[in-house]
């Protein structure tokens, strides 16, 4: 254990993104908690990320901040940022750990923590941060390697001696949320018969499976396989869900009816989740529910962690674009995933067990494209149908 960090008791952990990003940091938060007993952990995150904090036992407190350097942040004047820095200073943090993807700059958050007078500051950094970070790990991604997002953050805190043997994602479902979710589901689902949960929405348009494909998946599951289908989404996604379930009145919509805790409970109750690569896919990993992940090739590092899964995508030359809207306009990485493959994956997962390994096929695909590995390494996931199916690639 790093001796300077051993004394830290009031720790700020910064992850300014969304629900899934926060969940993928929870094993690293657990490593901090277990390695620094008696410490208090405050999560600094976005408004949407803050919604997860009550369900993460490793977090003691949460601060929501619309950071001006983050996408989709609310516009506010510099006075609000100055006031927030003063609030951080008043809280007298001993240390800050800044979690980012490799495509994000650490320096704005590092400057924030520096100005707040936080003595110890840890992060990855691509260039020498000089006084902005007291402890930093040179950024080697993606030039030398790529790691799953969870592994990246675990490796970061390991540099100061913080480790855990429990690397699962963390999301604790309160008993009252489980009971409410069960009651709401029971209004449209017979738990004694086969059923599946579908989450067709996503914040980014580039990560949304086409509506007509969702309709085909629903039709094949409900009409051909005889499965019951429940659909989840926020209130703003009610129209999307109604469009998908048109003509299938027995497909049950929970759009806008579930809190985050109740959504986690509904996913935990489900035999299998079919979802775009968005927050609920990571919720499924956290609660141990098998997931069919319709994986737009925007980022290779965010597959479901340590859970039985099928990661479905079509390889394209514009892979790993990191864009919220398809820059080519064809959306082929999801457009060309056949609904039949989605249905087959869901049925196979529902008949299997709820344990599995992290599917790293997108990481291997990235490594090959970047010249970081061999063709043989890339082919390993395709030869293991227990882990993934439907990886149909453009020839």
UniProtKB/TrEMBL annotation:
GO terms for molecular function: ADP-heptose-lipopolysaccharide heptosyltransferase activity. Keywords: Glycosyltransferase, Transferase. InterPro entries: Glyco_trans_9, LPS_LOS_Heptosyltrfase. SUPFAM superfamilies: UDP-Glycosyltransferase/glycogen phosphorylase. CDD domains: GT9_LPS_heptosyltransferase (cd03789). It comes from the Bacteria. GO terms for cellular component: cytosol. GO terms for biological process: lipopolysaccharide core region biosynthetic process. This is Lipopolysaccharide heptosyltransferase II.
């Amino acid at each position: 254990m790093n001796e300077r960090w051993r004394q830290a008791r009031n720790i700020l952990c910064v992850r300014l993104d969304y629900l899934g990003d926060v969940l993928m940091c929870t094993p690293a938060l657990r490593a901090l908690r277990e390695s620094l007993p008696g410490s208090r952990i405050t999560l600094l995150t976005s408004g949407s990320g803050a919604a997860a904090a009550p369900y993460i036992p490793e977090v003691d407190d949460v601060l929501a901040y619309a950071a001006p350097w983050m996408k989709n942040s609310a516009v506010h004047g510099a006075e609000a940022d100055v006031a927030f820095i003063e609030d951080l200073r008043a809280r007298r943090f001993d240390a800050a750990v800044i979690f980012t993807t490799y495509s994000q700059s650490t320096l704005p958050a590092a400057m924030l923590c520096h100005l707040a007078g936080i003595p110890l500051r840890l992060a990855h950094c691509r260039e020498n941060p000089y006084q902005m970070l007291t402890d930093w790990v040179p950024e080697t991604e993606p030039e030398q390697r790529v790691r799953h997002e969870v592994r990246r953050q675990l490796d970061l805190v390991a540099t100061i001696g913080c480790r855990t043997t429990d690397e699962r994602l963390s999301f604790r479902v309160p008993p009252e949320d489980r009971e409410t979710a069960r009651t709401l589901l029971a209004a449209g689902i017979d738990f004694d018969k086969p059923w599946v949960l579908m989450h067709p929405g996503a914040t980014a348009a580039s990560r949304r499976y086409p509506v007509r494909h969702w309709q085909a998946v629903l039709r094949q599951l409900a009409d051909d396989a005889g499965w019951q289908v429940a659909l989840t989404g926020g209130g703003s996604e009610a129209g999307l869900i109604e469009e998908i379930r048109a003509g299938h009145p027995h497909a049950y919509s929970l759009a806008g009816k579930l809190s985050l805790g109740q959504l986690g409970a509904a996913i935990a109750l489900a035999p299998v989740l079919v979802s775009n690569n968005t927050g609920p896919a990571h919720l499924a990993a956290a609660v141990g529910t098998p997931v069919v992940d319709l994986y737009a090739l925007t980022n290779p590092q965010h597959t479901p962690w340590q859970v039985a899964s099928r990661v479905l995508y079509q390889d394209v030359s514009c892979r790993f674009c990191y864009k919220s809207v398809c820059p080519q306009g064809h959306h082929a990485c999801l457009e060309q995933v056949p609904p039949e493959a989605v249905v087959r994956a869901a049925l196979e997962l529902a008949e299997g067990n709820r344990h599995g390994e992290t599917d790293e096929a997108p990481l291997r695909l990235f490594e090959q494209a970047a010249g970081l590995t061999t063709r043989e390494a890339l082919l390993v996931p395709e030869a293991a149908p227990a882990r993934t199916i439907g990886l149909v690639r453009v020839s």
